[in-house]
Amino acid sequence: MLLEKLLKNVQKINIVGKTKIDIENISYDSRKIEKNDMFICIKGLEHDGHLFIEEAIEKGAVVIVVEAGRKKEHKGNVLLCPSKRTQQNTKEPCLPTIVYVEDTRKAMAEIANNFYETPSAKMKIVGITGTNGKTSVSYMLMDILKKNGNKSGLIGTISYTTGKTKQTAMRTTPESIDLNRLLNDMVVNNMDSCVMEVSSHSLELDRVWGIHFNVGVFTNLSSDHLDFHGNLQNYKNAKKKLFTKTRQFNVINIDDEVGAEIAKEFDKLSTPVLTYGINSFANIYAKDIKLTNLSVEFDLITPTFNNRVRINTPGLFTVYNALAAISSAYALNISESAIIKGITSFRGVPGRFMRVQEFNEISVIVDYAHTPDGLLNVLNTVKGFKKNRIITVFGCGGDRDKKKRSVMGRIAGELSDLTIITSDNPRSEKAELIASMIEEGIKETDANYKVILNRKEAINYAIKYAKVGDTILIAGKGHETTQVIGEKTLYFNDAETAILVGREEGII
What we know:
Blueprint: H1 3-6, E1 12-16, E2 26-27, E3 38-40, H2 53-58, E4 63-67, E5 97-101, H3 104-115, E6 124-129, H4 134-147, E7 152-155, E8 159-161, E9 166-168, H5 176-188, E10 193-197, H6 200-204, E11 213-218, H7 226-229, H8 232-240, E12 246-253, H9 257-266, E13 273-277, E14 284-291, E15 296-301, E16 306-311, H10 316-331, H11 336-344, E17 354-355, E18 363-367, H12 372-385, E19 390-394, H13 403-415, E20 418-421, H14 431-442, E21 449-451, H15 455-465, E22 471-475, E23 482-485, E24 488-491, H16 494-504
Parallel strand pairs: 2-3, 3-4, 4-5, 6-10, 6-11, 7-10, 11-12, 12-13, 13-14, 18-22, 19-20, 19-22, 20-21
Antiparallel strand pairs: 1-5, 7-8, 8-9, 14-15, 15-16, 17-18, 23-24
């Protein structure tokens, strides 16, 4: 694609070098650069692309996009190609074209939109944001869309599905180039819609800049990712950015305090707000809710139809997730029949309140709950149907929000008969230090607890300790199949580990 076409709508400060250039590919990763590519320098969480300009040129980049404020980092001969790549039949060095912009992340998003010819405008896009529930809502909505006959793609925490292919997700919302590539794959595969989890990181880092969202969904907000955002206000403001990017509806949970605030603030915009909750002042709400250990059942009330709904996943959070998915489908003008068939056929999400079916005399539940609110919701659900004791196994991730650790310890202590503090993904932190911070909270409750840092040994202890009728909750990792310890990424699956231990102990 011609450079001029690629740079359409990009806020440029200056261009130094040739402009009549045909670009083969675009990338923010210098390792993936090939001849005649464009290299876009972005600052990541760990590395700054401006420090890899020379490598990109070595590999054949003919255009470099840089932030103007970082000139000092790439001045001088770093922008000269090596002597072995001089222009043919001359001794002159071949200089790449340098495009100076104010913000390379926004520029990259615009360039990606141009390179892939704005794929998000060629289908219906639903973006879901919030601290908890995004994955479950996305799976529920996918089931509804399937019943309606839609061909839908999925981008989220667990996987990316583009029609013919499915790949494990590297992050909840990919970088803008990767995101547009995935959306373009969906267009090529004749998908008519995409359900996307939109993380606060992606909103703050402009990964979804320029994406044409039809519907934006807000589930809830509680403390999370403060290691990145700094404070809860910044985290909230990042989430709110989604609702300035929508065209058809903003779907908001007004039972949530922040949701009510967002609904009031964005009600003044041209994009209408559709509210949901379990209170009758919402546009779409649930009443006469019945909760059991196996399911939820409620009367669904919408502006145009009412229906009794049963979903075979327990917990009040299931009601809220279902209302979010139903409201999103309603905003897309999906039929009542498809909505009811889709939501009642929902069979759960990997690692989200997932019962390990191999256990009979005890219940073993694996859940992704890794925030205070998430852990509270899951434990309250377990408490509602428990036959005997609750045993909770959990840890907190390293290099992440430290403030939530003691809070989660207190919640586990208050609602569990035994808490086993273990490692999650300690990353570069010491697992012992993370556990001690969790202990600070659990000690406030005078609860029964143990610290077993080896996660397999912690699960082993829980299963050995359990008696008939007990419920073991293994929280924090859910669908994840790896554990990050230092610089090592090791295979680890909570459900598989529980099954292995159960067989070793002769329980299953």
